[in-house]
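We give its fold:
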Amino acid sequence: MYVANFGADTFASQKGVKADLWGYQLNNLTVPTLISTYTKLINFLLANPAISSSGFWFLEKFGLGVTASIPDDSTAFPWRQSVSYGFFEFNLPDDVTTEIVSTVDTFAKKLRSDLSTGCGNPQGNVFVNYARGNEKPEQVYGKSKLPRLRLLKAKYDPNGLFNHYNSFA
């Protein structure tokens, strides 16, 4: 599965490019984990010359003042404790082999898990804009938020018009 985020659809849909993104969120920033993640990514890219120039690590850090001041039960936003979001991106050539895709995906899945776990998010929760599409609804929308979201969806979308990418229906 190839997923593009943040308006990157234009780039990802260019002839000859497949964007392979692995999003995450972090509940704290643990320096040894960040160093380990960076080292693993660089070593992986160096060991795989066919994709060595295609890998990126995107990390965003936010202040939490306003987010933390809003009552949790007043919105559908479930991740008030998160301090950072981001993704690993691999822009693979259109003629990439299934073996290389498998190698990248196996590595990225473990890298994302290790980073998330090491930075306070062992459940692998992820903000919806960073989700890959293989997460459980609870990991994207929050277990405590899903019942209300499902009720609202049933009320306002009874025909399932919006049952697409990352649907919780």
About this structure: Residues 9-142 form a domain with the Vanillyl-alcohol Oxidase; Chain A, domain 3 fold (CATH 3.40.462.20). Helices lie at 9-12, 31-47, 65-69, 98-118, 137-141, 146-156. The mean pLDDT is 85. The radius of gyration is 17 Å.
